């Protein structure tokens, strides 16, 4: 789940933006004052910053602080002032986009989605998320709320096969070939045992049993 920090001093607009973003399954933290953002040490995947806020801290001050610790995290500026100078300053400070109020909420959501995909597609090419499980294929680890779930080699290989092929039904023989290898000659009931162990360790996995045939992750 992508985490977004929304800094907007118009309370009604902040609630609307938060609502639209949460419908897209983003986790949104809202602030009205710039100083509160500067005191927040949480890491976010994207910031939406209003330039002019209720206190003496501006969106420009916030992005300077952000860039001190993270040069890559995307930032979208919003402002009621449609001036080229504001856009130029924003770009010079490292913003990725600029929206003038009043803006379309659907357009904002679209831009957020495009920026997140563009920014994290390559970084997360080996990272999967499924029902709050984070699966890192490079490090071969599974996390749930920052706690590692210990999986055996076979359990992890089965998990990756199912996650990468969601909604595809595998026969037991196919799973034996993919996970154990084509030269494995053991009983296909080994698949049932492995699925049972994986379900126990990751109970939210929606592994459907196709009776008399095999399994499918929905």
Describe the structure in your own words.
- There is one protein chain.
- With 218 residues, the protein is α/β, with parallel strands linked by helices.
- The chain is 40% helix and 23% strand.
- It contains 8 helices and 12 strands.
- It has helices at 11-23, 34-38, 59-69, 84-92, 105-120, 153-164, 172-180, 189-201, and strands spanning 3-7, 27-31, 46-50, 75-79, 97-100, 127-130, 133-136, 141-144, 147-149, 169-171, 207-210, 214-217.
- The strands form 3 sheets. Strands 2-1-3-4-5 form a 5-stranded parallel beta sheet, with helices on both faces. A 4-stranded antiparallel beta sheet has the order 6-7-8-9, with helices on one face. It has a 3-stranded antiparallel beta sheet with strand order 10-12-11.
- Helix 1 (11-23) links the parallel strand 1 and strand 2 (27-31).
- It is elongated, with a radius of gyration of 23 Å.
Counting DSSP H or I runs of 4 or more residues, the number of helices is 8
Shape category: elongated
**Secondary structure category:** alpha/beta
N-to-C series of helices and strands: EHEHEHEHEHEEEEHEHHEE
What is the alpha-carbon Rg in Å?
23 Å
Query: What are the low-pLDDT stretches, counting only 5+ consecutive residues below 50?
Result: none
Termini separation comes to 18 Å
**Residue share in helices?**
40-55%
Strand content: 15-25%
Mean pLDDT: 86
Total beta strands: 12
Strand order of the largest sheet: 2-1-3-4-5
Largest sheet: 5 strands, parallel
Describe how the helices and strands are arranged:
Layout: E1 3-7, H1 11-23, E2 27-31, H2 34-38, E3 46-50, H3 59-69, E4 75-79, H4 84-92, E5 97-100, H5 105-120, E6 127-130, E7 133-136, E8 141-144, E9 147-149, H6 153-164, E10 169-171, H7 172-180, H8 189-201, E11 207-210, E12 214-217
Parallel strand pairs: 1-2, 1-3, 3-4, 4-5
Antiparallel strand pairs: 6-7, 7-8, 8-9, 10-12, 11-12
Helix pairs in contact: 1-5, 6-7, 6-8
């Amino acid at each position: 789940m992508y985490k977004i920090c929304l800094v907007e001093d118009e309370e009604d607009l902040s609630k609307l933006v938060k609502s639209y973003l949460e419908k897209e399954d983003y986790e949104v933290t809202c602030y009205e004052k710039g100083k509160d953002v500067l005191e927040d040490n949480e890491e976010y995947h994207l910031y939406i910053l209003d330039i002019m806020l209720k206190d003496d801290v501006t969106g420009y001050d916030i992005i300077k602080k952000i860039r001190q610790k993270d040069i890559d995290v995307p930032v979208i500026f919003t402002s009621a002032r449609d001036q080229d100078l504001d856009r130029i300053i924003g770009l010079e400070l490292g913003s990725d986009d600029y929206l003038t109020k009043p803006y379309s909420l659907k357009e904002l959501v679209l831009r957020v989605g495009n920026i997140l995909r563009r920014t994290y597609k390559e970084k997360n090419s080996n990272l999967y998320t499924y029902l709050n499980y984070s699966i890192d294929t490079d490090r071969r680890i599974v996390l749930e709320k920052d706690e590692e779930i210990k999986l055996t080699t076979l359990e992890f290989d089965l998990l990756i096969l199912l996650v990468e092929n969601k909604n595809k039904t595998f026969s037991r023989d196919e799973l034996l070939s993919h996970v154990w290898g084509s030269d494995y000659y053991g009983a296909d009931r080994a698949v049932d045992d492995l699925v049972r162990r994986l379900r126990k360790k990751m109970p939210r996995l929606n592994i459907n049993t196709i009776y008399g045939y095999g399994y499918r992750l929905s």
